[in-house]
Write a structure and sequence with these properties.
The chain is an alpha/beta fold. Among the domains are: about 5-185, Rossmann fold (3-Layer(aba) Sandwich), CATH 3.40.50; about 210-395, Alpha-Beta Barrel (TIM Barrel); about 580-605 and about 625-705, Outer Surface Protein A, domain 3 (Alpha-Beta Complex). It has 30 helices and 21 strands. Strands 2-1-3-4-5-6-7 form a seven-stranded mixed β-sheet, with helices on both faces. It is globular.
Length: about 700
C-alpha cells in the first residue's frame, strides 16, 4: 500500500458571523474554541495507517481571516481565503467533515480545491453528507466519495482501496460514482465497542494548548425518535457508552499533557442508562481527581438523586432539549416529556449550581398561538433560575428527518433562517444561489408550512426574547409576571416599534441585526416608559422601578463621560507622582482618600431591588414589594459583565462623603456627627468599618498619597 498525504478538515461553525465584534464575543469564541472531536477521532485512526496527515480547523482559520488586514476591503471572502490555503497544501486526499449549517460553504471550498488540484481526491463525511449523499454526488462533480455514518472503520477501508487500486464493491457505508452511475453500498454496522477506538489525536491539533476545555466522546446513539432530530439516522439509534475507566483515563491523560481539567463530554443522551451514569460518577469520585464536565440529557432520564451525584462528581453544565412547552406538541413531535417533571429537574440542577441549557423550538407545522404561548411561559419560568440558560430556536427541516420527509414537497425559501441550521444575519450570495438550485441538498435552509403562525412573527419574537435576556433578563421576567403573558407585551411593543419607525431609524437594519444592536434596548425602554407602564397600577410600580434601574445604568454618551478639564490638561506632564490605589489586601489607613472609581456608577431607586428579585424568583405579589429610597451601585467587571450591589442606608451616607478629597479620618469624623444608629458602636469606628466594606465590595477604591521628598 502506498502512502498518501491526507488533510482532514473540520466543518466551520462560526463563519456566519461576518461582524468582527460579534465573532469576537465570548459566546461565539467559546464555540470556536471547541476542538473538532469528530475529525480528531478520525485523525487517530488515519495516523495509525502511517499516512502523513494534516488537521485543519476552519473556525481557527476564520479568526485569522477576520483579523488579517485587507481581506474585507479587497472584497476577498472567507471561502476564497480558505480554499486557496487548502489548495496550496501538498495533499493527495481532502477529507471534509460536514454539518448542515456550513454545507454550502464546504461544497464551494471543495469545488475550488478540485479546480486548482484536479488530481486530488475529495471525500465528504459527517452528518449532512451522510443523509444527502446521492443528491450531493448527482449535483456536485467535485466530490468523489462520501463516507456515511461512523467512519473510523469505513474510511481506512476506503483509503486502503484507493492506495492499492483495489475494489470498492465490498466496502459498506460509502457512496461513489462508477460507470457514470451513483453506487450506494449497504450501511456499515455501527461500532459496538467504542473502547476499541484510539484516543482522539489531540497532539495533531495545533491549537490544543490554547483550549480552556476539551471535548471527549462519552458514547453514541439515542434510542428515542423525535420527529425533528437527525441523530437517529446517523447513529442508527444504537445507544452505546464508553467505559468509565476509558473516559476517566483520557481525562487524566489530557490533564497531565495539557493542564486541562474541564471537559465537554459528548453524547446526545448520556443519561439513558442510569446505572452507567452512577458508575461513571462514582468512578470519578473514587479517582480522587478533580474534573469539571458538561453533558446532554433528557429530563425524564434523570432524577434529583442522580443530579446531586453528578454535581458531586464535577458536573457543571447540562443541556436539556425540552423543545416545546406545549403538552399537545410534546406528543405530536414524539418527545413525550412530562413538562411539570421537566421543570422540577431544571429547578434541581439550579439548586446544585449546574448551568442548564433549556432548549426550546418554535415553528412546528402543527403549532398554534396557544402552543407558542405555552413555550414562552416555560422559557420565562426557566429564566427565573440563576443557573438556567434558556434558548429559543426556529425549526429547521433537517434532511431525512420525519418532519422533512412529511413536508418535502411543501418547503419554501423565505430568507427566515433557523439558527439550528444557520447562525448569521446575511446569507452569502454564492451560498444563496447554491441553496436555491439544490433544495434536496440543503433542505435545512428552507421552511415547513406553519399555517397557524406567521414566520416573520416567530423570527422577531425569537430575536426579541434572546437579545432581551442578554440585555435585561429580570425586566423580561417582571413584565411576564405583571402581565401574565409576555406575548401581550411583545405584541404591544411590536406595534409601537413599527408605528414609531424604529427599524428605519436604525440605519436600515433588518430585524435580527436591529435586535442585536443597542438601539433595541434604548427603544424598548422608551416604549415602556412612554406607552406601556401606568403609574396608577400598584403591580406596575415594581416594573417601573426595574425600568428605572435599567435606564440608570445605560452608558452615557462620550461627551458626558469626558473628565471635566481634560482638554486643559491633555499632554501636560506631571512633575510629581500621583496617588497609589491600595490593593484589597492592604490596610485602609486614616490618611487614605476613598473615592468612586471610574468603573462604578450609582443610581437612586424607589424600591427594594433585592426584594423585587426575590419576588420574581418566587412568583410573589409584585404589589407587595417594599417601596423605599435606596441606592444601587454598578461595578463593571469588564466590557460585557457588571456586578450590582444594593447599598444600605448607612453605606449610602458614607458614599456621599467620599468626594475624592476627604481622607478616611475626615469622613469618619463627619460620619460621627450624623444622626445614625450603629447599634452602640462608636460612630467613628463604624464609619471606618463601613468604608472598608464598600472597598471590599468594589464600590469605592482608596488612594494613598505618595510622600513628597523633603525640600
Amino acid at each position: 500500500m502506498r502512502h498518501v498525504r491526507i488533510c482532514l478538515i473540520s466543518p466551520p461553525t462560526v463563519t456566519d458571523f461576518e461582524d468582527a465584534s460579534v465573532a469576537e464575543s465570548d459566546a461565539i469564541r467559546l464555540i470556536a474554541e471547541h476542538a473538532p472531536i469528530g475529525v480528531l477521532s478520525l485523525a487517530a485512526v488515519v495516523e495509525g495507517l502511517g499516512h502523513p496527515l494534516d488537521v485543519i480547523d476552519l473556525n481557527r482559520w476564520y479568526y485569522e481571516y477576520l483579523r488579517a488586514s485587507g481581506h474585507h476591503t479587497e472584497g476577498r471572502n472567507f471561502c476564497e481565503f480558505a480554499a486557496r490555503r487548502l489548495a496550496e497544501l501538498p495533499v493527495d486526499v481532502y477529507g471534509f467533515s460536514t454539518i448542515c449549517s456550513s454545507y454550502p460553504l464546504t461544497l464551494r471550498m471543495a469545488q475550488e480545491v478540485k479546480r486548482v488540484n484536479p488530481r486530488a481526491t475529495v471525500i465528504l463525511g459527517g452528518p449532512q453528507a451522510s443523509v444527502v449523499d446521492v443528491a450531493t454526488l448527482r449535483e456536485f462533480s467535485c466530490v468523489d466519495y462520501i463516507v456515511r455514518g461512523e467512519a473510523e472503520v469505513t474510511l481506512p477501508l476506503l483509503l486502503g482501496a484507493l492506495t492499492a487500486d483495489g475494489s470498492l464493491a465490498g466496502i459498506e457505508g460509502i457512496t461513489y460514482r462508477a460507470d457514470n452511475k451513483i453506487v450506494r453500498t449497504p450501511n456499515a454496522p455501527v461500532i459496538s465497542d467504542l473502547d476499541t477506538l484510539p484516543m482522539p489525536a489531540f497532539h495533531l491539533y495545533p491549537y490544543v494548548r490554547e483550549c480552556r476545555y476539551l471535548p471527549l466522546e462519552l458514547g453514541r446513539g439515542c434510542p428515542f425518535a423525535c420527529e425533528f432530530c437527525s441523530t437517529n439516522d446517523f447513529f442508527r439509534r444504537r445507544f452505546r457508552l464508553k467505559s468509565p475507566d476509558r473516559v476517566i483515563g483520557e481525562m487524566s491523560r489530557l490533564q497531565q499533557q495539557y493542564g486541562v481539567s474541564t471537559f465537554d463530554l459528548v453524547h446526545d443522551m448520556f443519561t439513558v442508562d442510569r446505572k452507567r451514569v452512577v458508575e461513571f460518577c462514582e468512578a470519578l469520585l473514587a479517582s480522587g481527581k478533580t474534573f469539571y464536565w458538561n453533558c446532554s440529557a433528557r429530563t425524564d432520564c434523570v432524577d434529583d438523586e442522580l443530579i446531586e451525584l453528578m454535581a458531586q462528581a464535577g458536573c457543571k453544565g447540562i443541556f436539556f432539549g425540552i423543545e416545546t412547552g406545549s403538552p399537545r406538541l410534546q406528543k405530536s413531535i414524539k418527545k413525550r416529556l412530562d413538562l411539570a417533571d421537566a421543570a422540577r429537574r431544571i429547578e434541581c440542577t439550579d439548586r446544585h449550581g449546574i448551568t442548564t441549557a433549556v432548549s426550546l423550538i418554535t415553528g412546528f407545522p402543527e403549532e398554534t398561538m396557544e402552543d407558542l404561548r405555552d413555550t414562552v411561559h416555560f422559557l420565562l419560568d426557566s429564566l427565573r433560575l440563576d443557573n438556567a440558560a434558556p434558548q429559543l430556536h426556529l425549526l429547521a427541516p433537517l434532511a431525512e428527518t420525519p418532519i422533512h420527509a412529511r413536508y418535502r414537497d411543501q418547503l419554501t425559501l423565505d430568507d427566515i433562517y433557523s439558527d439550528m441550521s444557520y447562525q448569521g444575519w446575511r446569507q452569502d450570495r454564492a451560498d444563496r444561489r447554491m441553496i436555491e438550485a439544490h433544495p434536496d441538498v440543503f433542505p435545512n435552509f428552507y421552511n415547513v408550512p406553519t399555517p397557524w403562525l406567521e414566520r416573520a412573527y416567530l423570527q422577531e419574537l425569537r430575536d426579541f426574547i434572546l437579545h432581551g435576556m442578554q440585555r435585561f433578563r429580570w425586566l423580561l421576567v417582571a413584565l411576564h409576571q405583571q402581565s401574565g403573558d409576555l406575548l401581550t407585551v411583545f405584541d404591544a411593543w411590536r406595534a409601537w416599534r413599527h408605528s414609531q419607525g424604529a427599524a428605519r431609524r436604525a440605519h436600515g437594519m433588518d430585524s435580527s441585526v436591529y435586535y442585536a444592536n443597542l438601539s433595541f434596548r434604548l427603544d424598548f425602554l422608551r416604549f415602556l416608559r412612554s406607552d406601556y407602564l401606568s403609574t396608577d397600577d400598584p403591580a406596575q410600580l415594581a416594573v417601573t422601578a426595574m425600568v428605572e434601574f435599567e435606564t440608570a445604568f445605560d452608558p452615557p454618551d462620550a461627551a458626558a463621560t469626558e473628565p471635566e478639564g481634560a482638554a486643559d490638561t491633555a499632554g501636560v506632564a506631571s512633575e510629581a507622582p500621583g496617588p497609589v490605589v491600595l490593593r484589597p489586601d492592604e490596610v485602609l489607613g486614616f490618611e487614605a482618600v476613598p473615592r468612586l472609581p471610574d468603573r462604578v456608577r450609582v443610581a437612586h431607586l424607589g424600591i427594594d431591588y433585592n426584594c423585587l428579585i426575590s419576588c420574581l424568583k418566587e412568583k410573589g405579589n409584585l404589589a407587595q414589594v417594599p417601596r423605599l429610597p435606596l441606592v444601587m451601585a454598578e461595578r463593571r467587571v469588564d466590557d460585557h459583565t457588571s456586578e450590582f450591589v444594593q447599598l444600605s442606608h448607612l453605606s449610602t451616607q458614607l458614599l456621599q462623603l467620599c468626594d475624592g478629597t476627604r481622607t478616611v479620618r475626615q469622613i469618619a469624623d463627619l460620619f460621627g456627627t450624623l444622626d445614625v444608629d450603629v447599634d452602640g458602636i462608636a460612630p467613628v469606628k463604624a464609619g471606618v468599618f463601613g468604608l472598608e466594606l464598600l472597598r471590599q465590595q468594589g464600590v469605592i477604591e482608596a488612594t494613598q498619597p505618595v510622600p513628597q521628598p523633603a525640600a
